[in-house]
């Protein structure tokens, strides 16, 4: 887990080092730099495998020079294949396996890799750069490209300069999503390499190409019994956890009150020869606190459990760090407790397993179930539903009117799914969701509506929200997080299972629950999930009120391109008077204002 940098722009060595030092938290163990043929390579190392300096980067083999961020979990298997082919190895790191594998197979190496990674390899003979990003987009990859000049980095901050301009399209997307999705970034001429893609740069001709090596495939449901599916998935999970336990530094696991982290921790405890360390963040507000359930889990699996209770001041103290390490506007408020959890964890271990990814593949998010609610009204002709959407159903269902309008007023389930992942009530003056076609999900790889929604979750939200949150929060404390549920084999396997194996009679993640019952009694884990969230709505009305009112003044709001200022101000008034919860809208604008002040860039 590190930070990478490579460019053909003729910066001085001191300039490149300054850029790397601005994100030094990603790799505090070693800062490496070298230049070849006018190409500068830089690397920040967080040493996890082969702690010896021989594995520092940039790493060279023949004419190849690599900077690599992440872990290749199956590197031992690939290494043995290369040994048979006559390759010798000087280190015990996955970096050496990666560069020698590329020297042998070129881009075909990618199909062999099981890991989380973002890397760039400069070929000093051909004068080319080969780059790739892992299938699920766990590791970040930003790049600047203009007129044959390029600059690649793990984070955006080192790519910001006096000529940088904010992308107004990206600001509009952020107003809906609360993040900026790939391939976009918040800056013009800076992009994100999409997951499952590789990029080739020809420095002789000044050209670049971006190609796909992996994506979700059209769903083909397997003819498999439930018991067979459960057994096969259990075996996959056992292996996914096992290959993520390889570490030369102390390792532990995050443990919440949810079943995904409980299952990962339970499997790790079963495999490990010694009790593992588990870590939990709890909240003073009992409506959000899962620490008591997590403690029960830890007692059953026999882990060494470390619990930290978080109050408003503890979480809000993380706000400056959030702005510092996230680089782009990022409005997932659970980033605050995530930062705190990683800071506590770093006192004990450097690698932590997590349960991230289970909800996406196994229909765990309740917002996906809005699709099921839509089925109950979809038989009603659209023009009648449009009229019904104006009724005050929200008083009956105790939810915001926009959600009910979104369900009743969607033309079809495709439109509803788009609204789930953008906005039921956009803050844009003019909403444009054509950018979603970049995700190719409108080809719809699945016919079943819940799987369609789950695929959106995997391709859009997982990469651009969940993975970003985990990467930046962990890197802020120099922690490496490994997520077995993000093993591409599990993602692919889950999509071949009938929906009823994953969601049945209102029960989410059915098959995961049944596997977990082999480790933990169902009476313990079958409790309402509270989610890894904070009481943001109350904090906005109390602890954060003055700061938010100061930040979101008319002067700032009028600088936000495409923002419907009057609509937002109505939402803020309704929230502050406790009529409805518009905390997400307010938090989005608050974080944007903080980001704008930090980077001193004009929004338009």
From TrEMBL:
Class in the EC hierarchy, top level: ligase
Biological or metabolic pathway of the protein: Amino-acid biosynthesis; L-asparagine biosynthesis; L-asparagine from L-aspartate (L-Gln route): step 1/1
Gene Ontology molecular function, alphabetical: asparagine synthase (glutamine-hydrolyzing) activity
Glutamine amidotransferase type-2 domain ranges (all copies): 2-204
Record keyword Hydrolase present: no
Alphabetical keyword list: ATP-binding, Glutamine amidotransferase, Ligase, Nucleotide-binding
Enzyme nomenclature, EC number: 6.3.5.4
Family: Belongs to the asparagine synthetase family.
Official protein name in the record: asparagine synthase (glutamine-hydrolyzing)
Species name: Flavobacterium ranwuense
């Amino acid at each position: 887990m590190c930070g990478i940098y490579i460019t053909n722009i003729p910066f001085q060595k001191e300039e490149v080092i300054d850029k790397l030092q601005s994100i030094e938290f990603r790799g505090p163990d070693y800062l490496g730099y070298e230049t070849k043929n006018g190409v500068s390579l830089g690397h920040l190392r967080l040493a996890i495998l082969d702690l010896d300096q021989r594995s520092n980067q940039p790493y060279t083999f023949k004419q190849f020079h690599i900077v690599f961020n992440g872990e290749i979990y199956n590197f031992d298997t690939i290494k043995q294949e290369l040994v048979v082919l006559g390759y010798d190895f000087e280190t015990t790191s996955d970096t050496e396996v990666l560069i020698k594998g590329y020297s042998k197979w070129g881009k075909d190496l990618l199909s062999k890799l099981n890991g989380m990674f973002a890397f760039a390899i400069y070929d000093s003979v051909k004068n080319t750069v080969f780059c790739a990003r892992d299938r699920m987009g766990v590791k970040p990859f930003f790049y600047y490209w203009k007129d044959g000049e390029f600059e690649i980095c793990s984070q955006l901050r080192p790519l910001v300069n006096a000529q940088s301009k904010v992308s107004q399209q990206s600001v509009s997307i952020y107003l809906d999503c609360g993040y900026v999705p790939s391939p976009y970034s918040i800056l013009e001429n800076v992009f994100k390499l999409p997951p499952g893609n590789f990029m080739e740069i020809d420095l002789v001709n000044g050209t670049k190409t971006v190609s796909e090596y992996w994506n979700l495939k059209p769903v083909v449901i397997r003819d498999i019994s439930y018991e067979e599916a459960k057994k096969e998935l259990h075996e996959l999970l056992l292996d996914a956890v096992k290959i993520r336990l390889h570490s030369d530094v102390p390792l532990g696991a995050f443990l919440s009150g949810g079943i995904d982290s409980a299952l990962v921790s339970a499997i790790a405890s079963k495999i490990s020869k010694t009790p593992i360390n588990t870590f939990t963040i709890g909240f003073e507000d009992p409506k959000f606190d899962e620490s008591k359930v997590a403690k029960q889990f830890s007692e059953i699996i026999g882990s060494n459990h470390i619990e930290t209770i978080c109050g408003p001041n503890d979480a809000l103290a993380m706000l400056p760090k959030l702005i510092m390490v996230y680089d782009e506007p990022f409005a997932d408020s659970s980033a605050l407790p995530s930062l705190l959890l990683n800071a506590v964890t770093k006192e004990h271990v450097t690698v932590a397993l997590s349960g991230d990814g289970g909800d996406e593949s196994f229909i765990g998010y309740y917002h996906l179930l809005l699709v099921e609610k839509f089925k109950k009204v979809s038989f009603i002709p659209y023009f009648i539903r449009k009229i019904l959407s104006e009724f005050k159903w929200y008083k009956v269902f105790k939810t915001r009117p926009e959600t009910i309008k979104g369900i009743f007023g969607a033309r079809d389930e495709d439109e509803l799914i788009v609204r789930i992942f953008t906005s039921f009530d956009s803050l844009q003056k003019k909403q444009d969701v054509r950018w979603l076609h970049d995700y190719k999900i409108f080809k719809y790889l699945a016919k079943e509506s819940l799987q369609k929604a789950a695929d959106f979750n995997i391709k859009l939200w997982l990469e651009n929200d969940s993975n970003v949150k985990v990467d930046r929060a962990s890197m802020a404390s120099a922690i490496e997080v490994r997520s077995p549920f993000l093993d591409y084999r599990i993602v692919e396997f889950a999509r071949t299972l009938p929906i009823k194996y994953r969601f049945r009679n209102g029960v989410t993640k059915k098959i995961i629950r049944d596997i977990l019952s082999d480790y933990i009694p169902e009476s313990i884990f079958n409790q309402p999930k509270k989610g890894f969230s904070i009481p943001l709505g109350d904090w906005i009305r109390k602890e954060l009120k003055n700061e938010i009112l100061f930040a979101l003044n008319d002067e700032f709001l009028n600088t936000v391109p495409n923002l419907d200022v009057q609509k937002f101000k109505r939402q803020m008034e309704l929230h502050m008077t406790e009529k409805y919860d518009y905390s997400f809208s307010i938090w989005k604008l608050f974080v944007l204002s903080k980001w704008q002040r930090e980077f001193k860039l004009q929004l338009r």
